[in-house]
Structure formats: C-alpha cells, structure tokens
From TrEMBL:
Top-level taxon: Eukaryota
Name of the protein this chain belongs to: Protein dip1
SPIN90/Ldb17 leucine-rich domain span: 186-328
InterPro entries xrefs: ARM-type_fold, SPIN90/Ldb17, SPIN90/Ldb17_LRD
Signal peptide positions (record): none
GO BP, sorted A to Z: actin cortical patch assembly; actin cortical patch localization; endocytosis
Annotated GO CC locations: actin cortical patch
GO molecular function ontology, one term from the record: Arp2/3 complex binding
Organism from which the protein derives: Gigaspora margarita
Length: 412
C-alpha cells in the first residue's frame, strides 16, 4: 500500500520524481487508480509545506494529477474516491489538498460539482459549511471551502434539506467575515464570501418558486434577507462591496446574481432601505450606463435590469430624492422607441417593462401625461406585474431559466 511507504526526500527534484511515480503506478486498473489517488493525497499533504511553497508549484502539482494518464483513464473513479475521502477525513492539510483537486477538476468539468451533492455524498455540503463557520478566519481550508460551495451552488439547484442548513447564524458569520476582512490587502477572500452569499440568495429564490407559498413574506424563506434586515446600518462593508462589484462590470453571471439580490432587497419591506443613499446613486449610474451599453443580444439581461429598476425607484429612499430623474426618464423613453437614435425597435417585453417603470411616481412633474409613443398609459393592477413570459436568461451556465417572483432565476 502506498500510504504505508515512508519517504525520505532530500530535495525538490526527488519530490517531483516520486510524485510522477505515484501517478504512473495508478494507470493499470481501477484498484491501482484508487490506491494511487490515496497515495497522491497523502504524499502531497505531507510534503506541501516543504516543496510547494509558491502558487505556481501548487498549480503544477495539482495539474500533474489532472493531466496524468491515470486521471484521463479513471477520472470517474478518482473523483468518486476523492469526494468520499473529503467527507470522512478531518486532517486539514489533507483536506486542503482534496478540496483543491476537486475545485480544479470541477472548473475543468462543471459536472463534477454536481457529483459533490449526490445521494451517496449527502454530507459534503454540510462539511463545507462547517469548515467555513468553524475554522479560524482566513484559514486556507476555509477559503477553498467558500470557493467550492459557491461553484456547487452556481451549477445546480440544491435540495431544500441542504438549503436549510444555511441558517441565520451562518449568514451572520459570513457578514462578520466580510466586515473583518475589509482592510485586507488581498481582497479575494472578501469578495469570494460575497459571491457565495449571492449564490445562496439565488438558491432561496429557487426554493420559494418550488413551493405553493410564493406570496409569503420573503423573510420566512430567505435567511440572508432575515439577517440583512436585522443588520441595517451594521453591515456596511457587504453593501459597499456588492455595489462596487456591480459597478465594476463583473462577469455577466455575477452581474445577474447581484441583480437578483437587489430585487429581493428592494421588494422586501424590511430591507428596502438596507443600502445607503449614496450606494443607490451608484446603482442608478450603473443602470443608466448598462442599459445604454448592453449589446442587442443581451436582451434578457436588459429585461432583468428593468425589472429591478421599478422597485429601486419606487420602494427605496430614492423615491424621495429622485436622483437623476430626467436622465432615467430619457433612457426609458429611448428604450420605449420614442427615440430611435440609440436603440433598434424594441420587443413587446421591453416595452411592457418600460411602461411599468414610467408609471412610477418617480417621474411626476416631468411626465404629466404618462404618454409613450403618443398613447396615454393608464395604470392597472395587471400591468404593474413583471411579466416574464417569453424571456430566458442565457448568461448562466445552464441557460434554462424559470420566472421567480418577477425575476428570472436559472433552473438546472
């Protein structure tokens, strides 16, 4: 057995030679592959501090496994074995190696992230949650656990039982981590925690959509919203950094997750004033910029912006300040087709969402007749609903989306 071997290494060259030997011995059959992946984890865990001191060395070590003939031939066996080992081992050095292997393997093949919540390994998400919550702040196993959990949630819908383990106490802990790491020179961990919370918020939205209680208070179903409602004024960094990410024009998937959180915050009475007014000004600036600049093929993302815009200008403190009222009105007028200088002919969905926004009291005094294209708009109850029929968000990895309370949430 590999794990019974006692290694005596004198230099890094011997380390890499021995590593290659371990991977080579696993090429024969499934049993040798299982033994070799165990030996690989044990070997790297033991010598990582001595011979894997740089990021490039770590990356090379992990990709030596993923690019090996053994992995290419027996990847399913190796991943199955590694996931099982992740749920049964407690040594942190070992777990750090295991989690990095699984993370990089999943980034190369996202289907692997789905295997981590299979019926055989139902404890994996719980283990990740425990490492995030219980380890010292900034511990490297805590950090890779955050990244793994984010990827798992991003690529699939997790079960109600799995979602229920993310309670108020867990989100309080995440928000405290965000506050405590705000001054770190390397902001990667801070923003990784926020990305995880954004993804879990989407999971709560999916869970509500799957029940018959869509009209219930969102606080009953969304632990993140409950905690945010109780921490208004005390989680400044989270709000600031969400808006900073939004303004930074991050990847479309993260942009969509942020929009979904904003929608939930702006449509839940207890959280409508969670963000500071200055942050909301930045949000308006981003909306104006993005709605003008989004390419034609990003119609679904444009619709999502418009769905969030209505509660933003209607339910938050902006309804009193009416920041950039005329610029927003001009933008909506352009989007509606009144002006064709910037936009091509709009779809019926875009038209309907624009009309909904223009009914807001936000525009009183500059749109007295509430007219679009010469036709007077009379508000009705049905017309105020955010109709999502015929719209599909394609920026997520799945491309299959379902409407959730007026928003679009990707369903796997």
């Amino acid at each position: 057995m590999h794990d019974e071997i006692i290694y005596h290494l004198e230099n890094s060259e011997q380390f890499w030679i021995e590593l290659d030997d371990i991977l080579t011995q696993g090429q024969q059959n499934q049993d040798t592959a299982r033994r070799s992946i165990d030996a690989y984890v044990n070997f790297v865990s033991k010598f990582q501090d001595e011979y894997l001191e740089t990021d490039s060395q770590l990356t090379q070590c992990f990709y030596n496994l993923l690019n090996s003939s053994m992995y290419q031939t027996f990847s399913n066996i190796i991943i199955e074995r590694t996931i099982h080992r992740a749920t049964t081992r407690k040594e942190l050095k070992e777990l750090w190696v295991i989690f990095n292997v699984l993370y990089l393997a999943g980034k190369n093949n996202p289907a692997i992230f789905k295997l981590m919540v299979s019926s055989q390994e139902h404890d994996f998400i719980l283990k990740l949650k425990e490492y995030i919550k219980d380890l010292d702040e900034g511990h490297r196993v805590q950090q890779i656990s955050v990244n793994l959990l984010f990827e798992i949630c991003r690529c699939q819908r997790i079960s109600q039982n799995e979602l229920s383990i993310f309670d108020d106490q867990f989100f309080d802990h995440l928000l405290n981590l965000v506050e405590n790491t705000r001054d770190e020179e390397d902001e990667t961990f801070n923003y990784s925690i926020i990305r995880l919370m954004l993804s879990l918020n989407e999971q709560f939205m999916l869970a509500v959509h799957g029940t018959s209680n869509d009209e219930d208070n969102d606080l009953d179903h969304n632990a993140l919203l409950r905690v945010l409602s109780a921490r208004i004024g005390t989680s400044k960094t989270f709000g600031e950094n969400v808006i900073f990410m939004f303004n930074r024009a991050v990847e479309p998937q993260i942009q969509m997750l942020i929009l979904k959180l904003l929608y939930e915050v702006f449509t839940t009475p207890e959280t409508t004033e969670y963000f500071y007014t200055n942050d909301l000004h930045v949000v308006i600036d981003v909306f104006i910029r993005e709605l003008y600049d989004l390419p034609e093929e990003s119609e679904a993302l444009r619709h999502t912006y418009l769905r969030v815009l209505y509660p933003l200008i209607t339910n938050t403190q902006l309804c009193q300040h009416r920041y950039k009222q005329r610029q927003i009105y001009s933008l909506l007028s352009d989007l509606s087709g009144v002006s064709t200088e910037h936009f091509k002919p709009v779809t019926r969905t875009t038209q309907r969402l624009v009309e909904t926004c223009l009914r807001s009291e936000y525009f009183e005094g500059i749109a007295p007749d509430k007219c679009i294209n010469g036709m007077k708009i009379m508000p009705t109850l049905n017309s105020m609903m955010f109709d999502t029929s015929g719209s599909t968000v394609t920026v997520t990895s799945s491309g299959n989306d379902v409407p959730v309370q007026g928003m679009l949430v990707h369903g796997i």
